[in-house]
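> call design_seq(struct)
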């Protein structure tokens, strides 16, 4: 049977295949943990040490499974991985977790151990073969042991002060890499496109033309803002993080900021579209004020006054020019 074309159900696996699947799963998890450790080593060396220790635990369990397989079935281990078995638990792609920060990596590691334990317990409960039941029960116990080992490693490497410092550093990096450029983009996209969009709207009373102008202004501003942010600072000296991430954040948020009040002009009735666009602008400006207050520690009413005043002035310019 070709596993890639027709996946086996877990209940149809032989005992040898179950052991082989456990071996490959332990190997994959060890590689995932080492990837986390490498990703965190420079900024969070204490957390990196935890994941190195967890990877070593996975290696130990894998070796015990290999020894078991060699004793019972010989040295040739069938190649069976998670994706070959229907219903077997999957792992979140490593590249996605690495980009979501320290807290997300810690949470994913805990979920990895819990999902593995739960799966083995459920599998053990479903089987009627005593030897297979024992094997699956042992694997479940091993995964529970991994969780206890992780707790021991945390106690060894991470005291309360270290955890607090790493969490503070992670939050600061998140703000510098994602929030700050994204906020700048949202402000630029929301405010700078007000004048051309509403000038076109009041000059032409043509909703389709207004939408096209808004679309062009929003996408153009997004591309420009994204490239400008990415090219302005490589992040090495400033510590602001990957220029690609910052450019992506700034570019996407700039485009969204403009598209928010351009999309209502897909409605053919001019005043209906304009009233909805007004409402969207109001929401956008207050969202900017909230983000400034939440992540940049700017007093809410001061942020609201600055943003609303600036937006109102740009909006008024657009309406005056368009009505002239």
């Amino acid at each position: 049977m070709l596993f890639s074309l027709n996946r086996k159900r877990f209940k149809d696996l032989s005992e040898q295949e179950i052991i082989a699947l456990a071996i490959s799963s332990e190997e994959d998890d060890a590689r995932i943990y080492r990837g986390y450790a490498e990703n965190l080593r420079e900024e969070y060396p204490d957390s990196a040490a935890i994941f190195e220790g967890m990877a070593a635990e996975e290696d130990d369990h894998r070796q015990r499974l290999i020894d078991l397989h060699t004793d019972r079935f010989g040295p040739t281990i069938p190649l069976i991985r998670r994706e070959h078995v229907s219903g077997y638990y999957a792992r979140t792609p490593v590249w996605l977790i690495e980009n979501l920060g320290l807290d997300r990596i810690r949470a994913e590691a805990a979920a990895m151990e819990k999902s593995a334990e739960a799966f083995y317990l459920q599998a053990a409960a479903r089987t009627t073969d005593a030897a297979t039941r024992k094997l699956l029960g042992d694997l479940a116990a091993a995964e529970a042991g991994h969780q206890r080992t992780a707790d021991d490693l945390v106690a060894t490497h991470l005291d309360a002060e270290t955890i607090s410092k790493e969490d503070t550093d992670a939050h600061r990096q998140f703000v510098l890499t994602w929030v700050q450029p994204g906020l700048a983009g949202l402000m630029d996209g929301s405010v700078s496109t007000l004048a051309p969009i509403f000038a076109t709207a009041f000059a032409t009373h043509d909703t389709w033309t207004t939408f096209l102008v808004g679309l062009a202004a929003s996408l153009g501003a997004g591309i420009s803002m994204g490239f400008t942010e990415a090219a302005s600072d490589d992040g090495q000296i400033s510590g602001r993080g990957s220029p690609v991430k910052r450019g992506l954040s700034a570019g996407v948020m700039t485009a969204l900021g403009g598209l928010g009040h351009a999309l209502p002009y897909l409605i053919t009735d001019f005043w209906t579209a304009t009233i909805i666009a007004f409402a969207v602008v109001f929401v956008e400006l207050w969202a900017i004020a909230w983000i400034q207050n939440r992540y940049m520690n700017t007093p809410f009413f001061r942020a609201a006054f600055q943003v609303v005043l600036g937006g109102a002035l740009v909006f008024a310019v657009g309406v005056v020019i368009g009505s002239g």
